[in-house]
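ESCALATION

Customer reports they have been waiting on this structure for their group meeting. Please prioritize. Original submission:
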Amino acid sequence: MAFEAGQRVGDYEVVRVLGTGGLGEVYEVRHAISQRAEAMKVLLPDQRAADQMGERFRREIQMLGALSHPNIASLHNAFYFDGQLIMIMELVSGETLRSKSIRTLLSIPQVLRYARQILSALEYAHQRNVVHRDIKPSNIMITEEDEVKLLDFGIAITDRSAELTAPGFLVGSISYMSPEQISGDKATTRSDIYAVGVTLYEVLTGRLPVVGTSNFAIMRSHLTEQPIAPVELNPRLPAVLSNAVLKALEKKPEDRFASAKEFLMALNALSASETEEIYSMPTTMLPVQASTTPRPQPSGANLASKSVSASAPQNFPLGDITKKLAVYIGPIASVLVRKLAANCTDMDQLYKEAATHIASEADRQRFLQSKRS
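Update from on-call: job pushed to the front of the queue and completed.
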């Protein structure tokens, strides 16, 4: 059954629906005594009838109950209500890494900080023999405090788990799935390393390392095609960072980092001069030449996740607009204006789109008025 706002579920009152996925629904709830806002996750009715889905849900609860890490969304409680298994979790306020990377331009230091937190969470989980199996930007929440929370251990496994997946059936997200998983082998900690590599590649370059117009083509790309080095798509990336991402994307598990900790050490190997240099860079996202091989865009993808032509319309005075915008947002203006120009049809639209990236309403108005000067 679906729950409604105001309904009492055990010691919790339903506030609102947060989201519905293929397997379950998530609600914001409030504990009747503590008044703490929390998240309640339940299986959809048609999924509750499937023994396998019920077993996955039970395992997710047990796994999360054994994990306590600042970068993993924590389990608070679990109980049965009218015969239905209920999971109560930490309510994470913020947005997913996918949403954030689409909405705004992430700096290299930001991405590095997120990567370190993701790897720290995975190192902790891996030490406890938990393999996530579904690392991707939409399962990585960025809190309002700009911290990472790793979500959705629904298909995670441990070394003691009995396999719930039938032979030849893939679990996970095709675009982020390791070659060994695609080949039908059991996922390991190095499979999570690969998925982190795909995630970082996408956020740092604006495109996936695998290409294809169908699931079959994407799977073949994972198995056989070497990705373009990230630094070739984004020349501002330090070579050490580009090489680390490529190592995480090696086809053979044994050629990747042996652990999340080793991957983390590689990121920490950036020299002092490289670190100082990237902290002065305006953005990770540069206009990238469109690939000659199209790839499917992630759901909800928009301007910031699509490849952008390096040539902007000639009738836009980009230099002048950039100078005016830079007064309010700094050097990032040069990349932002070029990116927006490729998708705007007139000056008014370009100015309005650029203005949305200025924090202060008064400054936004001053910028818009500068179009006439």
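Sent to customer with the following note: Residues 94-304 form a domain with the Transferase(Phosphotransferase); domain 1 fold (CATH 1.10.510.10).
Escalation resolved.
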